[in-house]
């Protein structure tokens, strides 16, 4: 990790604890110029991590989300890029909330006529300036700890659409139990998105393989493609492939 990137992460962590910190205070804390701090804040704003305000910045994310975003970030980025490669022009897709799935639109620059149905507020910074994407946010109860909309209203809206592909996040996946989530509400959203799609694609970094979450989403047989990283446990990968899952490691 570069020194600049490490400082940006520390700035974000400090602002989550003390949002009143000013540019001058951050400058003294990190022993760098105010110009450097303003540059860091501008970069964090461009990435959607904070809203700049006079003299400082206000984090846009719940601390829990920010922490999960930082975990396995290189792997998540590769997985999201591989998922984006599966989306063509004029395609209709669904994307569930999640720190990996939310990165998919980042790699859709240049696509035309792509319709996205999502319950994720985390991906909005990546679609705001992309004219080739049309986004439908499935309304419901906002849960800031996971940057997602959930509940009956969300499900009703999802069920109105039919798409080519559903891209699902996962908190755990095994050949025996299939894919799972740590929240029953999120599991419900994932299940309904899969039902409305012709193809189901699950995104999960290696830390999720071999783990079982709280709420069941679907058996392994319901997954068409699993995109994970090269650190995925070989034995679990082989078991999933025997269940008919197309496992792709990136």
Could you explain how this protein is built, in words?
- This protein has helices at 3-17, 23-30, 34-46, 63-70, 73-84, 124-127, 152-158, 184-195, 234-242; strands spanning 50-53, 56-59, 92-95, 114-118, 133-137, 141-143, 148-150, 163-168, 172-174, 178-181, 197-203, 215-218, 225-228, 246-249.
- Helix 2 (23-30) packs across helix 3 (34-46).
- The chain has a 7-stranded parallel sheet with strand order 5-4-3-8-11-13-14.
- The mean pLDDT is 90.
- The chain has 2 domains: 3-60, Orthogonal Bundle (Arc Repressor Mutant, subunit A); 69-249, 3-Layer(aba) Sandwich (Rossmann fold).
- It is of the alpha/beta class.
- The radius of gyration is 19 Å and the shape is globular.
The level of helicity is 25-40%
CATH fold name of the largest domain: Rossmann fold
Main beta-sheet strand count, sense and barrel state: 7 strands, parallel
What is the terminal-to-terminal distance? 20 Å
The largest sheet has its strands arranged as: 5-4-3-8-11-13-14
Mean pLDDT: 90
What would you call the structural class? Answer: alpha/beta
Give the CA-based shape.
Answer: globular
Helices and strands, in order, run as: HHHEEHHEEHEEEHEEEHEEEHE
Give the count of structural domains: 2
CA-based gyration radius:
19 Å
Index terms:
three-stranded antiparallel β-sheet; Rossmann fold; alpha/beta; Arc Repressor Mutant, subunit A; 35% helix; 250 residues; 2 domains; 9 helices
Summarize, please.
The chain has helices spanning 3-17, 23-30, 34-46, 63-70, 73-84, 124-127, 152-158, 184-195, 234-242, and strands spanning 50-53, 56-59, 92-95, 114-118, 133-137, 141-143, 148-150, 163-168, 172-174, 178-181, 197-203, 215-218, 225-228, 246-249. It has 250 residues and is of the alpha/beta class.
């Amino acid at each position: 990790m570069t020194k600049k990137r490490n400082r940006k992460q520390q700035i974000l962590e400090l602002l989550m604890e003390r949002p009143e910190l000013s540019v001058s205070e951050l400058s003294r804390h990190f022993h760098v110029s105010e110009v450097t701090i303003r540059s860091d804040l501008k970069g964090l704003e461009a990435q959607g991590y904070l809203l700049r305000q006079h003299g400082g910045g206000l984090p846009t994310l719940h601390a829990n989300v920010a922490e999960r975003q930082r975990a396995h970030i290189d792997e998540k980025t590769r997985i999201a890029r591989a998922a984006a490669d599966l989306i063509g022009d004029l395609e209709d897709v669904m994307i569930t909330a999640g720190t990996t799935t939310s990165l998919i639109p980042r790699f859709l620059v240049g696509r035309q006529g792509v319709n996205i149905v999502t319950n994720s507020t985390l991906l909005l910074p990546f679609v705001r300036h992309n004219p080739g994407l049309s986004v439908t946010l499935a309304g419901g109860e906002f849960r800031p700890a996971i940057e997602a909309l959930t509940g009956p209203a969300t499900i009703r809206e999802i069920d109105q659409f039919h798409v080519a592909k559903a891209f699902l996040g996962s908190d755990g996946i095994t050949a025996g139990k299939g894919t799972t989530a740590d929240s029953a509400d999120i599991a419900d959203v994932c299940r309904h998105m899969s039902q409305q799609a012709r193809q189901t694609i699950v995104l999960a970094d290696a830390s999720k393989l071999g783990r079982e979450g709280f709420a069941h989403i679907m058996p392994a047989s319901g997954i068409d493609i699993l995109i994970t990283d090269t650190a995925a446990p070989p034995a679990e990968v082989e078991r999933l492939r025997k269940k008919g899952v197309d496992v792709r490691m990136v």
